[in-house]
From TrEMBL:
Keyword entries, A-Z: Hydrolase
InterPro entries, per the entry: Cyclic_Pdiesterase, RNA_CPDase
Domain of life: Bacteria
Protein name: 2'-5' RNA ligase
Molecular function terms from GO: 2',3'-cyclic-nucleotide 3'-phosphodiesterase activity; RNA 2',3'-cyclic 3'-phosphodiesterase activity
């Protein structure tokens, strides 16, 4: 076999090998079963109404991100321990979360996220984000700040819309979780922490 043929074969093999996708780590609010089912119903209804190609995220994937690990690499064991310790120091009462608007978050993506969000009704999530960020920095985290725009992603599609009101989706938030997310796999819950007066 000629050197050029060998090179071509190796190049083809390299293209066919998919590197494992990096896991993402984030603190989040997880809806109760009733709210998760309502989110899935909303995603399916909007998908049909706007004739979108994207699939609903599905039961088990709906969440509201509070704080995301901002580095391009995965956290090491010490950084994960710091995240657990910071979460354990957070002191906040449980609260009612209410999402009553649908909007698209582009974030430079080819397929924007179709999300449910809110205005004053997501203040509790904003405060929990601030508390987590504060405790992480007290614990020694020096990375860049993780922005917070509380929302629940329904699906991804080549579609954009101005925000519009919908039937509210809400639940009583009693705790928050640290999640490890790998694309196309179920979430791995690394820890859950209760809120006070839940």
């Amino acid at each position: 076999m000629s050197p050029s043929a060998i090179f071509s074969k190796e190049a083809t093999m390299e293209r066919s090998v998919r590197l494992p996708e990096r896991a993402h780590y984030f603190f989040a609010l997880l809806p109760n079963p009733i709210a998760a089912a309502a989110a899935d119903h909303m995603a399916c209804a909007l998908r049909n109404w706007f004739d979108l190609s994207g699939n609903p995220r599905g039961i088990g994937k709906y969440h509201v991100t509070l704080w995301g690990w901002p580095e391009r690499r995965e956290p090491d064991s010490q950084e994960l321990a710091l995240m657990h310790c910071a979460a354990g120091r957070v002191r906040q009462d449980g609260f009612k979360l209410r999402l009553d608007e649908v909007a698209t978050f582009a974030q430079g993506s080819e397929k924007p996220a179709l999300v449910m969000t809110g205005q004053d009704s997501v203040i509790g999530a904003d405060r929990l984000h601030d508390a987590l960020d504060r405790e992480l920095r007290v614990g020694g985290f020096r990375g860049r700040r993780s922005p917070c725009h509380p929302h629940l992603t329904l699906l991804y599609a080549r579609f954009r819309t101005k925000a519009f009101r919908v039937r509210p989706l809400g639940w009583r938030v009693a705790d928050f979780a640290l999640i490890r997310s790998v694309p196309h796999q179920p979430y791995e819950i690394l820890g859950r922490w209760p809120l006070a007066n839940r």
